[in-house]
Design a protein that fits this description.
Elements lengths: L2 H33 L5 H33 L2 H6 L1 H31 L5 H29 L1
Helix pairs in contact: 1-2, 1-5, 2-4, 4-5
């Protein structure tokens, strides 16, 4: 593996871990607190805006670094015909799912907090973020399977 590939793989894994970790934290700590009434609309609105920006940036970095790694390590044929290639394709599908779930959850949450509501939008968005957390953990399992 060339130095560039090593650096990109490190960035890819680090950003992926931070992205999934932030979604898990949001789903496991922030939204349950908001749903229980332990948070006002303004801080929640700020948090969802930050998470959305971070998620978009992370998704872009993952696309660029993962795209480079896949392009240098696989051909169209090996993506379709090998186990590790199939796992890479599965990661792309999971990446798209995580991106979509965070976007939809954030949209549902922003719609409510803009009206200065907290409990109802937090409850509505929680399922999307929990699903995103599960998808993120599946990404980790898939990444582990690729490297073994």
């Amino acid at each position: 593996m060339a130095l560039v590939d090593t650096v990109l793989a490190t960035i890819h894994l680090l950003i992926g871990a931070l992205w999934v970790g932030s979604v898990v934290f949001f789903a496991g700590v922030v939204l349950p607190t908001a749903r229980a009434g332990g948070m006002d609309a303004a801080p929640l609105e700020s948090m969802v805006a930050s998470l959305t920006r971070w998620s978009r940036a992370a998704a872009l970095v993952m696309l660029v670094t993962g795209g480079h790694l896949a392009a240098t390590g696989y051909t169209v044929g090996t993506l379709a015909s090998t186990t590790s290639g199939n796992l890479v394709v599965a990661m792309v599908v999971l990446w798209l799912a995580l991106t979509g779930l965070v976007e939809v959850g954030g949209s549902r949450l922003r719609d409510g907090v803009e009206r200065k509501k907290v409990r109802e939008p937090a409850a509505t968005a929680l399922g999307f973020y929990r699903a995103g957390a599960v998808v993120g953990l599946l990404l980790f399992v898939t990444a582990g399977a690729i490297v073994t």
